[in-house]
Design brief:
Elements (H helix, E strand, L loop, with lengths): L14 E7 L3 H14 L4 E3 L8 E6 L4 H17 L5 E5 H7 L2 H5 L3 E5 L7 H8 L11 E3 L6 H5 L9 E5 L1 E2 L10 H5 L3 E2 L2 H13 L4 E5 L18 H9 L6 E5 L8 H9 L6 E3 L7 H6 L6 H14 L4 E8 L6 H14 L3 E6 L17 H24 L5 E9 L5 E6 L4 E5 L8 E9 L4 E5 L1
Parallel strand pairs: 1-2, 1-3, 3-4, 4-5, 5-6, 7-10, 10-11, 12-13, 13-14, 17-19
Antiparallel strand pairs: 8-9, 15-16, 15-18, 16-17, 18-19
Bound molecules: S-adenosyl-L-homocysteine (SAH), iron/sulfur cluster and FE3-S4 cluster (F3S).
Length: 453
């Protein structure tokens, strides 16, 4: 889902490190932190696997296809490797499969999970001790040490004006289709101080736009200096005081954890951007219950209404699963009806994929693949028409764009609007990392086109 950009540095005299990250923003963040971690150990990041000394696959286990992709990539990378290239599998497949990863691909020497990657230098040293056959030692570590990684990682190196910052990890919700509670562990929040320190560090390096990350980011309840639990709303208010930080976003939220203080901030805190990713998954209460979602369609729609009262033009984003076990045509139509009431600015929708070890995988009445595909296509057509309609509303308007880099065409720059839409326009490179005003003249499914004012 998320393309990770890790700062490449000069490889002269250094070992080459290639990291491929799959899956969500949390994984993207972890990949960036792995690069930070390995830099003082003499590793420079390269943008492909050819000739790399160390290849890390930072994997995702969320759907069947995510698994398949990793193992087919591993086969390809191995062909381009050197005899002594080390292959490490981290992330959620590493956590879920452990040693079994090595059974599926004998090229892999190191397996670790999302909560142990700070131990990578240790794993590498252990793996490099070769056995009598000249083979690397196999190392596996899938512990869940609470927050230990944050104490062990070096300070985060910024790359440009936008950054992810993890404030909350893990999930206690146990939706019946989902592997995340098993791969990421229990919900845990970092302290307010730790988050503020990381944010200040990023801003001192030129970061202007921070996305706070968590599997259930709005369940954030980190301790403040008086050992009291702080809400996400309180944390955002503190972060907003940091001079030079211009934009704050957070993702992913769970509908059951949205409180009024947080909703109010969309009106009262100018640094909080008008964008909310709030997955609903299904528009049928029967399916939501079977999914163990702990919200109803109506409570979700009520939250959206409240948010729009405070911020009428907010960009709402959602996640959907079609073809969950027992989903009838009627349940599916209910999802389309709910979508019609929301008008999404952007969305992520998936065909249900049975995951090993989750309750839904063994439920009766699994939906066949053809039906799933048809339902997904129908839902996506509706979501895309909403997405285009949302983008078109900006035609003729002036939007503030944080320029993140060059666009695809010559002399073109690319950036993000406050509503998190990609904006392309003509301009000089000196504007990269600046916030500029752009008048929008064209709107497409995935981007806006404008002219610099
Ligand atoms: N913590 C977040 C996101 C978790 S994973 C949340 O609760 O919203 C991202 C999305 O993947 C989920 O929102 C869901 O839509 C989708 N997903 C998770 N498990 C899935 C499965 N087994 N099959 C299909 N989609 C799945
Ligand atoms: Fe998965 Fe549900 Fe947790 Fe989200 S809230 S990570 S979908 S179990
Ligand atoms: Fe995938 Fe793990 Fe994220 S399963 S979606 S990388 S939490």
């Amino acid at each position: 889902m998320v393309k990770v950009k890790i700062q490449e540095n000069s490889t002269q005299g250094k070992k080459k490190l290639f990291i491929k990250s799959y899956g969500c923003q949390m994984n993207a963040y972890d990949a960036v932190r792995m690069a930070d971690l390995m830099a003082p150990h003499g590793y420079a990041v390269v943008d492909n696997e050819k000739g790399a000394d160390l290849v890390i696959l930072n994997t995702c286990h969320i759907r069947d296809k995510a698994d398949e992709k990793v193992f087919s990539d591993l086969g390809r990378f191995k062909k381009h490797g050197k005899p002594d290239t080390l292959y490490a599998v981290g992330g959620c497949i590493g956590q879920a499969m452990g040693k079994k990863v090595m059974q599926r691909s004998n090229a892999v020497s190191i397996v670790f999970g999302p909560q142990t990657y700070h131990r990578l230098p240790e794993f590498i040293a252990k793996a490099q001790v070769k056995d009598e056959n000249g083979k690397f030692t196999k190392v596996t570590d899938t512990d869940f040490p609470e927050l230990e990684k944050f104490d062990s990682l070096p300070t985060q190196k910024a790359d440009g004006a936008t950054a992810f910052l993890s404030i909350q990890e893990g999930c206690d919700k146990f939706c019946t289709y989902c592997v995340v509670p098993y791969t990421r562990g229990a919900e845990i929040s970092r302290t307010v101080d730790a988050v503020l320190k990381d944010a200040e560090n990023l801003v001192s390096q030129g970061v202007k736009d921070i996305t706070l990350l968590g599997q259930n980011v709005n369940a954030y309840n980190g301790l403040n200096n008086n050992d009291e639990a702080s809400s996400l709303a309180k944390l955002i208010k503190k972060l907003a005081k940091i001079e030079g930080l211009e934009r704050i976003r957070f993702t992913t939220s769970h509908p059951a954890n949205i409180d009024d203080d947080l909703i109010d901030l969309f009106k009262t805190e100018p640094k909080l951007m008008p964008y909310l990713h709030l997955p609903v998954q299904s528009g049928s209460d029967k399916i939501l219950k079977a999914m163990n979602r702990s919200h109803t369609v109506e409570s979700y729609l009520e939250t959206i209404r409240k948010v729009r009262e405070k911020c009428p033009d907010i960009a709402i984003s959602g996640d959907f699963i079609v073809g969950f076990p027992n989903e009838t045509e009627e349940d599916y139509m209910d999802t389309l009806k709910a979508v019609a009431q929301v008008n999404y600015a952007t969305s992520y929708s998936f065909a249900y994929s049975p995951r090993p070890g989750t309750p839904a995988a063994v439920m009766q009445n699994q939906v066949d693949d053809v039906t799933k595909k048809e339902r997904l296509a129908g839902l996506q057509a509706l979501l895309e028409s909403q997405q285009e309609a949302f983008a078109k509303k900006f035609i003729g308007k002036t939007v503030k764009v944080l320029v993140t880099g060059k666009g695809k065409k010559q002399n073109q720059l690319r950036g993000h609007s406050e509503h998190n839409l990609v904006v392309n326009f003509e301009g000089g490179d000196r504007l990269i990392n600046e916030i500029v005003e752009v008048k929008i003249e064209g709107a497409y499914l995935k981007s806006l086109l404008g002219i610099l004012l």
